[in-house]
Amino acid sequence: MEVVILPSSKEIAGLAADAIEALIRRKPTAVLGLATGSSPLPIYDELARRHAEDGLSFAQAHGFALDEYVGLPAGHHESYREVIRREFTNRVDIAAGNVHGPDGSAKDVLAACQGYEDDIKAAGGVDLQILGVGTDGHIGFNEPGSSFASRTRIKTLLEQTRRDNARFFDSIDQVPHHVVTQGLGTIMDARHVLLVATGAHKAQAVRDFVEGPVAAICAASVLQFHPHATVLLDEAAASALQ
Ligand code: F6R
Questions:
Q1: Phi, psi of 165 (to 5 degrees)
Q2: Which one of 26, 119, 143, 231 is least enclosed by Cβ atoms within 10 Å?
Q3: Pairing relation of β-strands 67-69 and 99-100?
Q4: Is the pLDDT of residue 74 over 90?
Q5: Structure pTM?
Q6: Which of 68, 136, 164, 189 is catalytic?
Q7: Sheet harboring 178-181: ordered strands across?
Q8: Three-state SS for 57?
Q9: Is the Cβ–Cβ distance between 134 and 205 less than 8 Å?
Q10: Cβ(37) – ligand 1 distance below 6 Å
Q11: Using an 8 Å Cβ cutoff, are 125 and 191 in contact?
């Protein structure tokens, strides 16, 4: 695991965008794994800027979202499909049909999860997976205790995660209890994972997954086993590292 500490989210976004740009220029059909939440937003802003100003094209690229809430109506402002569209894919030239997300409203959730795994495989697998990390160490919505071998499936959010995400909703009561998320095994199949964490509220989770034991209680610690994992931190998020 390569850990890079940078002064601010602006530099983090620049470095992450450099990696994504290099990939897209080398392999225009690259498959990007797209996270939501606050952490990747500066990266999406920077990629949208490079598209508008430098002609960086995503026309042949593919995108796969990490996760989705269960129970939000289609088109809900906070559904991750909508967030990814609004924050990233609508701002670049990626083909709408090339952007995929787990189906949080499928009648047959098991079949939909298997179908999502099949779609990722059919696209050739994820080349670069963008990740944030939860204050409880989750990646995707793989909460503490998730199996390292897990694949896309339905999960229950912990209260802490619902509280953390309540800022996107009018009240915590509106935060769904369930999600469909890529599993840790799915995430580990990505050829490069690039995790971004900023702010002092992430310091303990960062210490746990970077320096702690690899253990299911801290899902992100599985990344210690990934052959190409890059962790981009600001100084506050890195402040508990030894
Ligand atoms: C989002 C996701 C989550 C977030 C994590 C951190 O698709 O899968 O793991 O990355 O909850 O969220 P932020 O970045 O909002 O602190």
A1: -90, -5
A2: 26
A3: unpaired
A4: no
A5: 0.97
A6: 136
A7: 67-69, 178-181, 153-156
A8: coil
A9: yes
A10: yes
A11: yes
Residue nearest to atom 15 of ligand 1 (CA): 37
26 Cα–ligand 1 center, Å: 28
Which residue is associated with the tokens 């030239």?
Answer: 93
Q: Choose the catalytic residue: 138, 189, 208, 234.
A: 138
Q: Average pLDDT in the 87-91 region?
A: 98
Q: Which candidate, 53, 196, 178, places its Cα nearest to that of 105? A: 178
Kindly provide the residue ranges of all beta strands, DSSP E only, lying in the chain, ordered along the sequence. Answer: 2-6, 31-34, 62-65, 67-69, 99-100, 128-131, 153-156, 178-181, 192-197, 229-234
Show the DSSP H helices in 93-234 as ranges: 109-122, 159-165, 184-188, 203-211
Q: How far apart are CA 172 and CA 167, in angstroms?
A: 8
Neighbours of 204 (CB within 10 A): 16
2-234: CATH architecture: 3-Layer(aba) Sandwich (3.40)
Mind listing the pLDDT tens digit for each residue in 137-183? 999 999 999 999 999 999 999 999 999 999 999 999 999 999 999 99
In sequence order, what are the residues at sequence separation of 6 or more whose Cβ sits closer than 8 angstroms to the Cβ of residue 150? Answer: 142, 183, 184, 185, 186
Closest atom, ligand 1, to C-alpha of 36: 7
**Tokens describing residue 190:** 């990505």
Question: Is 173 annotated as catalytic?
Answer: no
Rounded to whole angstroms, how far apart are CA atoms 178 and 241?
Answer: 32
Q: How many Cβ atoms are within 10 Å of 93's Cβ, its own excluded?
A: 13
Ligand 1 atom closest to Cα of residue 161:
11
- Which helix or strand (DSSP H or E) is residue 11 part of? helix 9-26
pLDDT in tens, 108-119: 999 999 999 999
